[in-house]
Amino acid sequence: MPINIPDDLPAAEILENENIFVMHGNRAMHQDIRPLKILILNLMPTKVETEIQLLRLLSNSPLQIDVDLLHMASHESKNISKEYLNRFYKTMDHISGNKYDGFIITGAPVEGLRFEDVDYWDELCAMMAWSKSHVYSTLHICWGAQAGLYYHYGIDKFPMERKISGIFPHRPIVRNHPLLRGFDDIFYMPHSRHTEIKRESIDANPELQVLAISDEAGVAITARYDGRQVFVQGHMEYDLMTLAREYLRDSSQGLDPDIPTNYFPGNSPKATPIMYWQSHANLFFTNWLNYSVYQETPYNINDICWEN
């Protein structure tokens, strides 16, 4: 799937060098099809890295996608310049009148805080409320998934004794769900978090369905029954070295992190990891774009509304 992004976005050159199908704005304007409009709320401090990871996965379907990048107006980013954000990102004020076929809310390194203590929580709540009437399907990732479950359904997160970090085996438990079409009996996904959502909390809500679980990492994928809200506690989008960078960062800060599980060959941080989760990551994002978004969203995007 070609992704339509600004011609001068720095991620474009990296993606093109990886043989990712990138369509620049000028070419996209001359095609007579309706592209999917996808909004990405990037809460990660590593903005460019996260952009690249998500855009890789959004590019693998045969439909054109227009991508808007969103950041929090109420939060000052410390790892990216204001000039970069002003050039490539929008705030809620810029897009509140728009409608989108899909919305992705990323994770954020704020798990140690109560949701209400996160400095941009009120703004995020406003965005999640807005999404119900302006977005067809929203995909929440890691802390974004926990925040979405808390805001929409009152399901809280719980601290874990040790940070869960590594690549863990998962199994689908709703085999016929469109999001899991083509999945093997076992698939792998990275996790990197200090908190978790309990399965019993989700099972108690009749609007939600647990789709995939891990014996070690817990609930992995949850969805509203109509597919309009999807919650992934892991990080399918992570690239080969993301967990290594996090491990080295935590080690340098004296946090005594565990070596990521099932990640370094021989469990040696000096060894180069092996990629073995990318195919299912691509399949999941393609399934979400196709079955939760493209097949269901109205052709007239202005007809998007919320139906309980």
Describe the structure.
This protein has 308 residues and is an alpha/beta fold. It contains ten helices and twelve strands. Strands 1, 2, 3, 4, 5, 6, 7, 8, 9, 10, 11 and 12 form a twelve-stranded mixed sheet that branches. The two termini are 31 Å apart. The model has no long low-confidence stretch (mean pLDDT 92).
Topology:
Layout: E1 3-5, H1 10-17, E2 22-24, H2 25-28, E3 36-41, H3 47-58, E4 65-70, H4 82-88, E5 89-90, H5 92-95, E6 100-105, H6 121-134, E7 135-141, H7 143-153, E8 158-172, E9 187-196, H8 199-203, E10 208-214, E11 218-224, E12 229-232, H9 242-252, H10 278-294
Parallel strand pairs: 1-2, 1-4, 3-4, 3-6, 4-5, 6-7, 7-12
Antiparallel strand pairs: 8-9, 8-10, 10-11, 11-12
Helix pairs in contact: 1-3
How does the helix and strand content classify structurally?
A: alpha/beta
From the alpha carbons, calculate the radius of gyration and give it in angstroms: 19 Å
**Percentage of residues in DSSP E strands:** 15-25%
Tally of helical runs:
10
The coarse silhouette is: globular
How would you concisely characterize the structure shown here?
The protein is α/β, with parallel strands linked by helices. The protein is built from 10 helices and 12 strands.
Keywords:
single chain, 308 residues, alpha/beta, 12-stranded mixed sheet, 10 helices, 12 strands, 30% helix, globular
